[in-house]
Structures are given as structure tokens and as C-alpha cells.
Amino acid sequence: MIKLVNVTKKYGNNSLALENVELSIDKGEFVFLVGKSGAGKSTLLKLLTRQEKPTEGQIMVGGKSIVRLSNKEVPLYRRKIGVVFQDFLLLEDRTVFENVAFALEATGTSPKEVKKIVPQVLQKVGLAKKTNSFPNQLSGGEQQRVGIARAIVNRPEIIIADEPTGNLDPKTSKEIMRLLSDINERGTTILMATHDIEVVAYMRKRIIALKNGQVFRDIDKGGYED
Ligand code: ADP
Ligand code: ADP
């Protein structure tokens, strides 16, 4: 599903963020991306969302190179990917329903379909009762559920989550991880960058560790120690 071949990313002339990165993630995998601040995690995620282009190397997603996509092709490509953020990034002046509907409308879904799909997805993330609430009326965990609903509503093949539990307490983090796990078990590939060693330890999924822009370890299941 995701393949990086000899990927190097430099910012400007001397800031080397990623160096000769090789990795391959199969469809349906759940993968943690770990590493200290500055290791290159955000850069890797930005290459996959095509916010950045590699300086060298090849990136394949779903069997197609994304390196040479034209600006016109990028929006269609991005529909394959749902993104979940640490600080949720919800529209504060819109309701839960509207936040999720907005993502569907952006892909040209008809109002009739939007009315049908949004309640189904809110049900799925456990927020059916909060449909008409505004983000500031929700707990952190509930806000992240809205973020996840928004990420899955267009049925992406891949979810990229950047520190999704970074602002949540351990119990709420566990609930959010259970939800991401459910989504993964239905076939969505998940790549999650995190500093949360506790989450990584109990999930027992594949761990890719970056260090100074290189893949430093790639471990099959759990058992992470720095
Ligand atoms: P992480 O997400 O693991 O903290 P980053 O991908 O943000 O790592 O950063 C990797 C390296 O690239 C760091 O040395 C960082 O300073 C550098 N870097 C990241 N973004 C930029 C940028 N826009 N311009 C210059 N250097 C950058
Ligand atoms: P099922 O697999 O039986 O359809 P799900 O729990 O996957 O059950 O889905 C419940 C409802 O939500 C279904 O009607 C499904 O079409 C809808 N649904 C599930 N996931 C999504 C999604 N990512 N986007 C839109 N609708 C979804």
C-alpha cells in the first residue's frame, strides 16, 4: 500500500530530514512511527500527504508513484488518505454534524447522501448523541472522535494519525486507540506517529523507529524500548 524507495528529503541546502529511507507497509497494517523530536516523523507524513516532495527517491501509494503528481492530481490523491491531528483541528463555529459533513461536501457528495452518511459515521465513532454539539461543548476524547469521523467519512484506504493521543489522558487515549483499531480491522491501513510509549507498548503492532532521518529499527510487534 505504501512503499518508499531510497527516499531523501532535504529542506534548503543543508537540513537533512530523511536519508535513504526504505520502507514498505502492506494494505491493512497498523504501524507506529516513533522517534525523538527532529527524527523525521512529520517529514515522512508530509511526504505521504504530498505537502512535501522528496529530494530523491520514489514513493508509491496504492501502486502509483506520488512523486510526480501534478498540482491538479493532488486533491484526488488525497482522498485516499484520512488525516487525524493531535489538536483535532475542528471548525469551532460548526456543529459535530457540520464538521463531518464539510469533509464529505468537499468531495462532491450530494446533500442527500451527506444526510444519510454523517449519522452513520457518527454512530460508528460513538457520537450519535452529540450531533448538534459544538466542539467547545465536547471533551478532548469526543473532539478526537469527531476528528476520526471526519477522517473516515470518505472511506480512505489509509489513515495517517499524527500524535492523535497527544492531548488526551491515558484512559481516553485507550478508547481512541480502540476506535482506531476497529477501523484498522475493517481493512484501513493506519500509520500513526506517536511519542506515547504506553500506547505503543499495549497495542503490540509494528513499530518503525526513525533516528536522525533514518530507519533505525523496524519491529514486528510491540516490545519497544529506546
Ligand atoms: P519530527 O517530526 O520527528 O520531530 P521533523 O520531520 O519535523 O521531525 O524534522 C526532521 C528534521 O528536519 C529536523 O532537523 C528539523 O529541524 C528539519 N525540518 C523540518 N521541517 C523543516 C523545514 N520546513 N525547514 C527546514 N528544516 C526542517
Ligand atoms: P457494516 O460493515 O455492516 O456496514 P459498519 O459498522 O462498518 O457496518 O458501518 C455501519 C454503517 O456506517 C453502514 O451503513 C456503513 O455503510 C456506514 N459506514 C461505515 N464506515 C463508513 C465510512 N468510512 N464512511 C461512510 N459510511 C460508513
Automatic annotation (TrEMBL):
InterPro entries: AAA+_ATPase, ABC_transporter-like_ATP-bd, ABC_transporter-like_CS, ABC_transpr_LolD-like, Cell_div_FtsE, P-loop_NTPase. Its main location: membrane. GO terms for cellular component: plasma membrane. It holds the Pfam family ABC_tran. It is a peripheral membrane protein. GO terms for biological process: cell division. SUPFAM superfamilies: P-loop containing nucleoside triphosphate hydrolases. One of its GO terms (molecular function) is ATP hydrolysis activity. The keyword Nucleotide-binding applies. Keywords: ATP-binding, Cell cycle, Cell division, Cell membrane, Membrane, Nucleotide-binding. Residues 2-226 form the ABC transporter domain. SMART domains: AAA. It is found in: Cell membrane. Part of the ABC transporter FtsEX involved in cellular division. Belongs to the ABC transporter superfamily. Homodimer. Forms a membrane-associated complex with FtsX. This is Cell division ATP-binding protein FtsE. The gene is ftsE.
